[in-house]
Amino acid sequence: xxxFLVRRTVGALVILLIISAITFVLxxxxxxxxxxxxxxxxCTPETLKLVRxxxxxxxxxxxxxxxxxxxxxxxxxxxxxxxxxxxxLGYSFHNHEPVLGTILDRFPVxxxxxxxxxxxxxxxxxxxxxxxAVKQGKALDKxxxxxxxxxxxxxxxxxxxxxxxxxxxxxxxxxxxxxVPLTEDPAGWFQGLLLPWLVLALIFTANYxxxxxxxxVETLSEDYVRTARAKGLSRRTVFFRFAWxxxxxxxxxxFGLDLGYLLGGAIxxxxxxxxHGIGALSVKAVRDNDLPMLLGVVLVAAAAIVxxxxxxxxxxxxxxxxVRLA
Length: 326
Description:
This protein is mostly helical and 326 residues long. 74% of the residues lie in helices and 2% in strands.
C-alpha cells in the first residue's frame, strides 16, 4: 500500500510540474504586457524598464520560470516588494500582496462551500440512488430517475438567482448568502452557506442518483451477488456487504473529481451568491490582468484535483486490493 501511494504521489508531482510550466508559458506570453498595465497611463520607456525589473519579468521566459519555481521552495527577493518566504508564488501585480497569502485568505470560504455541499449531495444522491435500485421498475424508481434527469439539466446561475429571490427576499425562509467565519459565528456561518449548499446539492445530487442506481442495478445482477442470495444470506447483508461495495468504485471517482473541482474554485457558484472565495478571486485576477494571482489560482485548482485523484486511488486500493498491483 505504501509503495502504491508513493508511486501515485511522485506521478502527481510530475503532473503539477508540467502544469505549472505550461500555465506559466501561456500566461506570460499573453499579448497584453503586465508591466505596461502596472506602469499606468503615463509611462516612459525608462519607467517601463524599471517596472519590468521590479516585477521580475525583465529576464527571458525560461529564466523567469526557473526563478518562480525556485521561489516555491526557497523563497525570493523582489526589488519592489522585498522578501517573499517559501512557498512563494509571487506578488500580485494589482494589490502588491503575496499571492499565496491572498489565496489562503479566500480558501476557507471555498472549503466551507465545497465540504458542506458535498455532504448534502452525497447523502441525498447516493441514498436516492439506492432506493431507486431496490425499487427498480416501480413508480419510485421512475420518479427518482425523471427528477435526476431534470435537475441535472439546471444551471446554478439560474437556480441560485431564483432561489435567492423567493427563499430569501420574498418568503424570507433562508438568510441571504454571506461570508461568515466559522470560528467567529458558527450559526451565522451555517445560515450564510445553507442556500448555496442546497442549490449545489440540487444539481450534483442528480448525478449521484443516476450513477448509484445504474451501478447498483448492474452489480445486483452479478453472479457473486446471486450466489450470496442462493446461500441464504439476508437481503440487507447481500446488498450492503456485496452489491454496495462492488458499486462504490465509479461513485468514489465521481466524488473525488467533483470535490477537487469545487475546492479549486466554484467560479459560477461564488459569483452567483457573491461569496469571496477562490473562484471569485480568479475572476478578479482576469479582470485586473493579474498574472501571478491567476497563475497561483490555476495551480491551486490543479493541485486540488491531483490530490483528490490520489485520495481516490487510495480508496480504490482499500475497496479492491487488486488495484495496488496496477
